[in-house]
């Protein structure tokens, strides 16, 4: 569960009250934070009790639904393709990252999704794990044939067109967090 001491520490960043961009994992975990969500996060919440809590938070104004501008969504998609995270990100993940870029420095993404955190680190966005501490290293992925080693675009799912071997995703580079 989310520790209160950690929560209090995160409430302020150099005297500023921080705002949060919440992933479905934050809502499912019961984190009660004021902030924003994307419509796609609302769609991910299916359990009736959680939907009711979400509706109450939206009515009370502690949560707001925002839609990111297309240019920020495109930026996230381009960067996610370069890191290899694009195949792991949901529509909600992409929208949350886009919102974080659009809204700027005063926001922290709350999510336990490692692919989202990986990309947030590359994009130099603040993020916070809920039940998990978060990523320790940044991963850059690649697709290649296990037999002949030919590289393929990320997301390629067919067999190798050279030898018929299996195309798999593999770690290309591991970077230290900045």
Question: Can you lay out the helices and strands and say which pair or pack?
Answer:
Layout: H1 4-11, E1 12-13, E2 16-17, E3 19-22, H2 24-28, E4 35-37, H3 39-44, H4 48-60, E5 63-65, H5 70-83, H6 91-103, E6 107-110, H7 114-122, E7 127-128, E8 137-145, E9 151-152, E10 167-176
Parallel strand pairs: 3-4, 3-6, 4-5, 6-7
Antiparallel strand pairs: 1-2, 8-9, 8-10
Helix pairs in contact: 5-6
Could you tell me the CATH topology label of the largest domain. Answer: Rossmann fold
Radius of gyration: 18 Å
> What is the CATH homologous superfamily assignment of the largest domain?
5'-nuclease
Basic shape: elongated
Beginning-to-end CA distance, first to last residue = 27 Å
CATH architecture of the largest domain: 3-Layer(aba) Sandwich
Count the helices. How many? Answer: 7
Identify the quaternary structure here: single chain
Sheet with the most strands, sense and barrel status? 5 strands, parallel
How many domains comprise the coordinates? 2
Poorly predicted runs are 1-12
Mean pLDDT: 81
Strand content: 15-25%
């Amino acid at each position: 569960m989310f520790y209160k001491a950690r929560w209090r520490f995160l409430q302020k960043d150099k005297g500023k009250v921080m705002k949060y961009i919440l992933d479905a994992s934050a809502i499912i975990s019961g984190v009660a934070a004021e902030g924003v969500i994307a419509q796609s996060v609302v769609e991910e919440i299916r359990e009736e009790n959680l939907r009711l809590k979400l509706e109450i938070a939206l009515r009370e104004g502690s949560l707001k639904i925002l839609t990111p501008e297309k240019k920020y969504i495109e930026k996230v998609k381009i960067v996610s393709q370069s890191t290899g995270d694009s195949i792991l990100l949901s529509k909600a993940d992409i929208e949350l990252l886009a919102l974080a870029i659009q809204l700027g420095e005063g926001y922290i993404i709350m999510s336990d999704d490692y692919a989202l955190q990986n990309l947030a680190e590359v994009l130099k966005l603040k993020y916070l794990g809920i039940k998990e501490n978060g990523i320790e290293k940044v991963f850059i992925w690649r697709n290649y044939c296990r037999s002949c080693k030919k590289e393929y675009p990320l997301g390629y799912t067919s067999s190798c067109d050279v030898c018929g071997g299996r195309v798999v995703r593999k770690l290309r580079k591991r970077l230290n967090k900045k």
